[in-house]
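fyi for ur records
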Amino acid sequence: MISTDIKGRRKFGFLTAQYRDSQRPHRISCRCGCSRLIHVAAEDLTNGTVNSCGCMPPPPAFWNRQAELRQQRAREALFAAGMPIGAFR
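which gave:
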């Protein structure tokens, strides 16, 4: 849990925590590196789910995983169509 005195003291990726939302105390107002102000759930900040307002691209590992999933789906489709296992290499 984030302490109540967080203004400008905590960095979460590209986000700097500014203040708690008075109407929704579980939300934190954060300033992104691109100057945009966004409201984020405190849990998403602390577990690393959110680290920018969306202006930053995802890390390369994300794209590598997406490519792996596309290849796996293609292999499964070929297998379902009756291609021999050795053809996947």
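Helices lie at 42-46, 60-80. thats all i got for now
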